[in-house]
Design a protein that fits this description.
Blueprint: H1 3-20, E1 23-33, E2 38-49, E3 56-67, E4 72-84, E5 89-90, E6 93-94, E7 98-109, E8 115-126, E9 132-144, E10 151-162, E11 167-180, E12 185-197, E13 201-214
């Protein structure tokens, strides 16, 4: 597919998702290399539900990544989500002070443009009381096109499996555009279509923007 057609297709998808957005997310992400093999990453995010303007969810995540080689990396992370305002139930359930411990494996498939990558995450989720709530396994495939030195459109599909009862719970499709502002700064504009499978199927549309900083 030609670059112009890709941009046009992504623009249409983004426009449709923005109109239907039920939640807005704003975040900043900081990547700090510690050594040639180890990297520290921290991210802070605010989630604003469109229909419940008085509520918001604050999310903080820290992780330590180990780069085995150019294709494979491992990471462990700590994430906490705290709800502010009125009760809010998202597709991941109520966000009241939930703590998550994550273990990730990333792999870049050795192909040229577009770039393909896989990410597998195991997640243990706790409530504020420290009681274990859920075990999840997440698998994500990302396709990223090197359209220009400063622009990289991408699309990814991620599935969530709840290991407590070995059930397929969520499917998340994400479409976005990464823009390089400078050597150390970048923007990621994205839209998410998230489906939850329980006794019925529910949908959520999310629009977000992340400022990335690399030191």
């Amino acid at each position: 597919m030609k670059p112009l057609k890709i941009v046009m297709l992504l623009s249409i998808i983004m426009a449709c998702d923005l109109i239907n957005a039920q939640e807005i997310r704003m975040a900043y992400n900081l990547e700090l290399p510690l050594t040639k093999k180890f990297e520290f990453e921290t991210e802070s995010q605010i989630k604003y539900p469109v229909l419940y303007s008085s509520s918001k969810v604050l999310v903080f995540e820290n992780s330590l990544k180990y780069k085995l080689n150019k294709k494979t990396d491992f990471a462990i992370g700590y994430k906490i989500a705290s709800e502010q305002g009125h009760d809010l139930t998202s597709l991941e359930g109520a966000e009241n002070d939930k703590t998550r411990i994550n273990a990730d494996v990333g792999y870049k498939i050795p192909v040229n443009n577009p770039d393909l990558s896989l990410k597998f995450r195991g997640r243990v989720q706790y409530s504020e009381t420290g009681k274990k709530q859920h075990l999840y396994q997440r698998s994500r495939l990302t396709v990223k096109y090197n359209l220009h030195k400063k622009f990289q459109p991408y699309i990814s599909d991620e599935v969530f499996i709840k290991l407590d009862d070995t059930a397929f719970r969520y499917n998340r499709i994400k479409v976005g555009m990464e823009t390089k502002l400078s050597k150390n700064l970048g923007l990621d504009l994205y839209f998410i279509n998230e489906m939850k499978f329980k006794t019925y199927i529910s949908m959520q549309y999310i629009a977000g923007l992340t400022l990335g900083i690399k030191i």
